[in-house]
């Protein structure tokens, strides 16, 4: 281990803490030091392998893979012998970890192998960016540390970018509050055996333990999590769930976050609580983002730089589908009208409001124009449909969610206009956040049902958040009477399974009837089809 680098790295977090306020210089230095870690890990030896013995199996958080392209993928693990204990049963030394990739499940045809060091500065997480693989095929991988061997994970490269695959099968999920229920949805998803999973945010929740819940948060007893150690511990708790772990082991994931990975309804550097010191809030954001990076199979391009983490990115499934994975939290402007549900007034329609920020928006527009894909998908967080809810008896004007796209209605309509004007083939939006299922046919302005449909939005419900919900045809009818764009609404728990071919897009809404105990019954509640070249969802 490079001693100079080590001592610098160890001093920096301390220095940031002692600063008490935000020093841009320090953050830049800290970010740069973190960015140097992968190179450090690759050339340092850590403790001699033979001397390592773990208090328990160090692979209790499982293995994962993510962000595949046609020639590579990220392989992930995090050494954690005691997931629920402070210090996780590890010392503060780096630990050498060997990894290997095979063309066979029996690990009998190894195509690549190497050694890295799991560093305490990154929570003993390991991110291996493997390149040089063949497109469109499965691979298997495993890790070894000390005498311990991890489970064998299965991953998959994306098809050749020039090819037109016959079919893509994937699932998308969001909002998995640990205390609200069991991850039966992931147990069922594993049976579907999808090629990919997209997670659209609220992977963890930041609140303290509550009484009388199905399961219990660990961590601070009375306050939201706040420090790097708090966030690491929360991620360890969630990832110790065996169904979640198994789904990560089975196929690569593309993850993006919403608000609860850091703090409820935050907007860039602005807390929903007005008394929070902005400098403290950014330091907290750095902790949350670092723990998120450590917990997820992300590429080095997403290495946190102080309070910043580059998460928006794209994935091409050949010429069949292109996914733009968005980050609608880190760069957004503050929610207009003081957040919550408000009329779609001048403040909501202010063209300066943005959920994407200028850089991400430009990148998205350029990517859509350059795309060769049949289906052009935005994988993102909050609902795009400009959905009106009834106002109050005192003020009957319809109200809209200011935390969702109606809070940046001008930008939202500009995106739909862009799809239409540029004739972007088959735009599809995937959404999480609101713990309910929706299918919305999007127009440039959803308040004008006489105008043409340009895209379809599939909003997936929560895995557990909100606890058991139900199908409510009465509420659906009321919503639909106010909102011609809404084709489906349902409050059950579950996820969405998609089957994509050059001819059609099918979304199956999989519901879990009871998340309060393990093994709840699952069913496909409703399916919708979009035909290529014909905007609008049809119930099937
Ligand atoms: Fe949520
Ligand atoms: Ca959310």
Low-confidence stretches: 1-30
Number of helices: 11
Work out the count of structural domains.
2
Bound molecules: fe (iii) ion, calcium ion
By CATH's scheme, which homologous superfamily of the largest domain applies?
Alkaline phosphatase D (PhoD)
Terminal-residue CA separation: 60 Å
Radius of gyration: 23 Å
Multimer state: single chain
Biggest sheet descriptor: 7 strands, mixed
The percentage helix is 10-25%
The appropriate CATH architecture of the largest domain is 4-Layer Sandwich
Which short descriptors sum up this protein?
alpha+beta, Immunoglobulin-like, Purple Acid Phosphatase, chain A, domain 2, 7-stranded mixed sheet, 11 helices, binds calcium ion
Quick structural overview:
With 540 residues, the protein is α+β, with helices and mostly antiparallel strands. It folds into 2 domains: 42-156, Immunoglobulin-like (Sandwich), CATH 2.60.40; 168-539, Alkaline phosphatase D (PhoD) (Purple Acid Phosphatase, chain A, domain 2). The chain has helices spanning 3-19, 24-35, 37-43, 184-192, 228-239, 242-250, 278-295, 346-349, 358-370, 409-421, 473-482, and strands at 63-66, 73-78, 95-102, 110-118, 125-130, 138-145, 148-149, 153-156, 168-173, 196-199, 253-255, 313-317, 321-325, 341-342, 375-379, 400-401, 427-431, 437-442, 455-459, 486-490, 493-500, 504-512, 522-531, 534-539.
Please provide a written account of the structure.
By secondary structure, the chain is α+β, with helices and mostly antiparallel strands. It folds into 2 domains: 42-156, Purple acid phosphatase-like, N-terminal (Immunoglobulin-like, Sandwich); 168-539, Alkaline phosphatase D (PhoD) (Purple Acid Phosphatase, chain A, domain 2). The chain is built from 11 helices and 24 strands. The strands form 5 sheets. Strands 11-10-9-21-22-23-24 form a 7-stranded mixed beta sheet. The protein has a 7-stranded mixed beta sheet with strand order 12-13-15-17-19-18-20. Strands 3, 4, 6, 7 and 8 form a 5-stranded antiparallel beta sheet that branches. α1 packs antiparallel against α2, α4 packs parallel to α6 (242-250) and α5 (228-239) packs parallel to α7 (278-295). The chain starts with a helix and ends with a strand. Bound molecules: fe (iii) ion (FE) and calcium ion (CA). Calcium ion binds next to loops.
């Amino acid at each position: 281990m490079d001693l100079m680098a080590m001592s610098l790295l160890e001093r920096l977090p301390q220095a940031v803490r002692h600063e008490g306020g935000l020093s841009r210089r320090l953050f830049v230095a800290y970010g740069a030091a973190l960015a140097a870690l992968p190179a450090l890990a690759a050339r340092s030896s850590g403790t001699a392998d033979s001397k390592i013995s773990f208090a328990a199996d160090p692979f209790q958080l499982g293995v994962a893979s993510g962000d595949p392209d046609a020639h590579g993928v990220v392989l992930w693990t995090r050494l954690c012998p005691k997931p629920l204990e402070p210090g996780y049963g590890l010392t503060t030394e780096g630990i050498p970890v060997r990894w290997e990739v095979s063309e066979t499940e029996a690990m009998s045809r190894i195509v690549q192998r190497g050694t890295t060091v799991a560093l305490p500065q990154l929570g003993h997480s390991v991110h291996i960016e493997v390149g040089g693989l063949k497109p469109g095929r499965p691979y298997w991988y495993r890790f070894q540390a000390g005498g311990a061997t991890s489970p064998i994970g299965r991953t998959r490269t994306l098809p050749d970018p020039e090819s037109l695959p016959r079919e893509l099968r994937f699932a998308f999920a969001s909002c998995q509050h640990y205390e609200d229920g069991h991850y039966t949805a992931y147990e069922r998803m594993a049976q579907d055996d999808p090629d990919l999973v997209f997670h659209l945010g609220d992977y963890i929740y930041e609140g303290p333990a509550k009484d009388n819940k199905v399961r219990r948060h660990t961590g601070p007893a009375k306050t939201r999590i706040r420090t790097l150690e708090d966030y690491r511990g929360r991620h360890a708790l969630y990832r110790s769930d065996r169904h979640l772990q198994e789904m990560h082991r089975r196929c690569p994931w593309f993850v993006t976050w919403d608000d609860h990975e850091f703090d409820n309804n935050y907007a860039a550097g602005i807390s929903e609580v007005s008394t929070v010191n902005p400098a403290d809030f950014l330091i907290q954001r750095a902790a949350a983002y670092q723990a998120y990076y450590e917990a997820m199979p992300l590429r080095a391009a997403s290495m946190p730089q102080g309070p910043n983490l580059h998460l928006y990115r794209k994935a091409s499934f050949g010429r069949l589908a292109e996914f733009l994975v968005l980050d609608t939290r880190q760069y957004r402007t503050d929610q207009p009208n003081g957040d919550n549900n408000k009329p779609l007034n001048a403040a909501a329609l202010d063209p300066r409001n943005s959920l994407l920020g200028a850089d991400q928006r430009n990148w998205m527009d350029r990517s859509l124009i350059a795309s060769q894909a049949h289906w052009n998908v935005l994988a993102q967080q909050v609902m795009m449909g400009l959905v009106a809810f009834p106002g109050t008896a005192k003020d009957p004007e319809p109200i809209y969610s200011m935390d969702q796209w109606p809070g940046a209605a001008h930008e939202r309509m500009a995106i739909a206009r862009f799809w239409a004007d540029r004739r972007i083939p088959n735009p599809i939006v995937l959404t999480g956040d609101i713990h309910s299922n929706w299918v919305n046919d999007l127009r440039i302005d959803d308040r004008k049902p006489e105008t043409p449909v340009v895209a379809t939005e599939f909003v997936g419900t929560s895995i557990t958040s909100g606890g058991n919900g139900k199908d409510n045809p009465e509420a659906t009818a009321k919503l639909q009477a106010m909102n011609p764009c809404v084709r489906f609404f349902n409050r059950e728990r579950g996820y969405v399974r998609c089957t994509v071919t050059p001819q059609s897009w099918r979304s199956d809404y999989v519901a879990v009837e009871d998340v309060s105990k393990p093994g709840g019954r699952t069913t496909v509640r409703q399916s919708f089809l979009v035909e290529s070249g014909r905007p609008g969802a049809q119930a099937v």
